[in-house]
Amino acid sequence: MLTRREEITRLLESTEQPMTAQEICDILDLRKRSIVYEDIDHIARTVRNQGKEVIVKPASCGKCHYMFKVKDSAKAPTKCPKCRSEWILAPSFLIRMKK
Ligand SMILES: [Zn+2]
User: Fold this and answer.
1) Residue pair 69/51 in contact by the 8 Å Cβ criterion
2) Which of 6, 34, 68, 71 could join 2 in a cystine, given CB atoms 3.0 to 4.6 angstroms apart?
3) Is the dihedral angle over the CA atoms 91, 96, 97, 99 positive or is it negative?
4) Is the CB of residue 23 less than 8 Å from the CB of residue 93?
5) Distance 78 CA to ligand 1 centre (A)
6) How far is ligand 1, taken at its centre, from the CA of residue 79, in Å?
7) pTM for this prediction
8) How far is the CA of 64 from the centre of ligand 1 (A)?
């Protein structure tokens, strides 16, 4: 049996395209995206010791294409600071060997 964090790690290592927290929730049958964001935070620290890294494609605004900082993406922003739109494209994640 893998722990939830191990399962997320495995998913992010094997995925071709970066995955959003919602996609991870759907696959692993989790209820809350906030759990995934929290786990990814931990996973980022764990995989660093294995020579890997979590690559974050930052959240962006669907209206004005404002790009959030990676640091802010992990908390899943809900509003664009520039145009105030709430149409936010979720950040997505994958894990790769560190170059
Ligand atoms: Zn915007």
Assistant:
1) no
2) 6
3) negative
4) no
5) 11
6) 8
7) 0.86
8) 4
